[in-house]
Every structure is written in structure tokens, then in C-alpha cells.
Write a structure and sequence with these properties.
The chain is built from 13 helices and 10 strands. It has helices at residues 4-16, 21-24, 44-59, 76-83, 98-101, 103-106, 144-153, 168-180, 192-200, 211-219, 267-281, 284-291, 302-323; strands spanning 33-37, 65-69, 91-96, 118-133, 159-162, 185-188, 206-210, 224-228, 254-262, 296-297.
Length: 329
Amino acid sequence: MIRRRHLVHATAAATLAGAFAPLAAWSQKLARTSVVVGFAPGGTTDVVGRRIADKLGATGFADAAIVDNRSGAGGQIACSFVKNAPPDGSALLCTPYSCMVIFPYVYKKLPYDPAADFVPVSIAASTTQAMAVGPMVPPSVKTVTDYLAWVKANPQNTGYGSPAPGSTSHFLGALLGLESGLPLVQVPYRGAAPGIADLIAGQIPVMFTTTGDLLPQLRAGKLRLLATSGRSRSPFAPEVPTFAEQGFGRLLSEEWFGFYAPAHTPPAVVKAANAAVLAAVQDKAVVDALATMGLTAVGSTPEAMAESQRAESERWGPLVKKIGFTADS
């Protein structure tokens, strides 16, 4: 798997070597490009797409860039739209990697082929997942092992919240159940917000979701984080140990959000789009805006993005199969 620090180093090296060169040579500047997002305004993917779109015009890739929210089917509608868009840079997809990496194992039929229908442009941001407990769980529970012991002693509390069935959050909770031998049961929500509301209200004991979703309530003292899912501790909650530190190495997730162009987009267009995204993710305003959502700005080459997609797909496939979940379950 491509490690995040390798992506950061690749971005820095590319920039120092002249990442703006493709833009300087870009003679087909677009009047407008659409950043197509498969989720509603205000969500994590929308924030990534919107912050990058704000800068695409300034980089010289297009005179203007707009965000086109085509929400529904967990991002599949947006993927399908960009798949059929003209391969000229006028439409770029911004999506979490789950649409390309996990969905092929969850849905029997996808309306797109992640490998054949798109060209990787660049990773733009990454995030980790976190395991949060609320007031239902006693303060003496401070680690993942403590939590599992508490559930074993209180088998009526095997439920865990996730923002959606088939999400990375869902699968991390399921993996914890498999690793521990406890029958942890997903309580799916329509997004993170209602699940977090139930968590702090004491309706569910634990919630798995992206670290950024939990930061406001963590800072307000309304919930506690027991673990985060990165290889190293989250810069947004450095006091919280990772799952791996606590002996649960398979609960690893550093989900990225990336940009894709339709298949058959000319290499010159892809290079120019890549340079524009790299410039955007190094802009301090973008970095700071993403950080408020618990997101780390990360760029990559198209080749590194494609390799990361392949490696993540190979890792998640057997895990999803072992969990046994499909969209028809």
C-alpha cells in the first residue's frame, strides 16, 4: 500500500521539480470545469471538492470552476455522470476512495468500472476513522480492550453506530467484532450527524466514523475517542492511540479523497489537472480549511494514485468477503 508520507514526499518532490510546468504549457485553458461531487453540500467530500474548485481557476486550468453536487446511491450517481462526460477536463470527479475500492465488493452491479472508466488525476486529502464512546459507557473504559471487556459483561450493548451500511466505518466495526470474537452489530445511520447525536444522548454506546466528524463533540467533552485508524496518531487528536498501538493492526484505514477524469482524457489534460490540484493542496487557505474537518491535504501523481487504488482494492476485497456484507444483505 502507498503510505501517506510517501504521497506527501512525492508531492513535494513533484512541486520542487516544477509541478507548474504542465500549467505553464497549458494552451487549452477551459472556460469552465465542473467538480462533480456525489454527496450533499456540507459533507466531507463536498468540502474537499469545493476547496479545490475554489483554486482551480487561479491556477490557470480553467477560467472558472464550479461544484456540481449529484448526490445519491453513495456517490454512484456522480461516478456515472463523470464516466459519460466529455474527456476534455470540463468535468472532474471528486470522490472518496470507497466508491472505487470498496463498492466493487459490496454491489453486485455497479454502473461504472473503477479501473476502465476513469483516469486518476490526484489524491487531494486523507482522513482517518475513529472509535468514539458516549455517556452510556462508563469513564473507566479508556481503551479498546476495556470496551470489549465492557461489552462482554453487558451483551445487550453490542450495537455500534456507523454513518452508512457498506462504509469504511461499518467495516471497521465489523472487523473489530471478528478480531475480538464478539457479535458486534451495526446500527446504520443516514450520515454521521444523527449517529453522533444518538451517541451523546446515550442511545448507542459507540460510533465509528471519520475523525473529523467527531472533533467538535470531542472538544466539547461530550464524547471520548478510544482509537484512531491511521498508521500513526491523528494530528487532530494526538493524545488518542491508534488501533494498531492497542493490538488491532488490521483496523487500519487512511481513506483518501481523489480527483478523476473520464477515461480517454488526453495526457496533457490530466497533467494540467494534476498540477492544478497539487497547487491547490499546498495553498494555506485550503490546508487550513481542510484541517477544520479533520482532513490532511495530500497530493500525488496520477501513477501513485492508481497504485494506491490498486493496493487498497486488494486489501479490502478479502476483508469485505470475510465480513460477508453485500448491498443485498
